[in-house]
Write a structure and sequence with these properties.
Its cofactor is [2Fe-2S] cluster. The chain is an alpha+beta fold. The chain contains 5 helices and 4 strands, in the order αααββαββα. It has a domain at about 50-130. It is about 30% helix and about 10% strand.
């Protein structure tokens, strides 16, 4: 599949497992794995595609940097228990606009999307293809 075919498949929902990470089941995960998930030092991907958000000039926003917030892309305080070493990034837009805010948490230009999600999607695709040939 070429890259444009992959993008079309992604938008049509043919690769749903690449768009949102699957939550861990508490019954199937070991206790050490659960502890590492509950107390992470690295951000987790909230979604594979960026969030399109309308923001207002002068209003303060807190972008979730850890990926654990239920109010993505904004912080709801979940980092306090799930990832205490990762703090949200606070920003104030200078004018009303629509922004693309990072959801994969791999951007080099936080909180804005820089296209890093394409690398994350590609890595997930490679992992799934390798899993087929094991």
């Amino acid at each position: 599949m070429n890259s444009s075919g992959f993008v079309v498949a992604l938008w049509r929902g043919c690769t749903r497992d690449l768009i949102r990470p699957q939550p861990l089941s508490p019954l199937s995960a070991s206790s050490s794995m659960m502890q590492s998930v509950l107390m992470s030092t690295q951000p987790v991907s909230a979604a594979r595609l960026p969030y399109r958000v309308k923001v207002s000039a002068g209003k303060r926003y807190a972008w979730c940097a850890c990926g654990h917030s239920k109010k993505q892309p904004f912080c709801d305080g979940a980092h306090r228990t799930a990832a205490p070493t990762i703090s949200p990034l606070r920003f104030t837009p200078d004018k009303d606009r629509t922004l693309m805010l990072c959801a994969c948490k791999q951007t080099k230009n936080a909180p804005y999307c820089d296209g890093s999600h394409l690398k994350v999607i590609f890595q997930d695709l490679v992992k799934s293809v390798k899993g087929v040939f094991k």
